[in-house]
Design a protein that fits this description.
This protein has 93 residues and is α+β, with helices and mostly antiparallel strands. The chain has three helices and two strands, in the order αααββ. It has one domain. A hairpin with a 6-residue loop joins strand 1 and strand 2 (78-82).
Length: 93
Amino acid sequence: MPQQKQAVVTFKAEESLLEALRGMPNRSAFIRTAILAALDNLCPLCLGTGILTPDQKTHWEVFAEDHQVRECHTCHEWHLVCSHSAGEDRHDR
């Protein structure tokens, strides 16, 4: 299988982060893994910005008419609940 073409990416970092990375045997692999993990956990609406555009907010308001954000009684994480579902708890699976 041919190897994918790689590119160099740079970013600014505080001294404390640089110090923490200095002891890593393979900083590049660690950073790649951390970035991929972070991308797997992005908000599907704001894509990690924390801000909705005015049009996204309008869509959210329509969606929110039949959905609520609730705290899970088991793990205490916040999650979406549809008012049209039986409210199945993922912890009961």
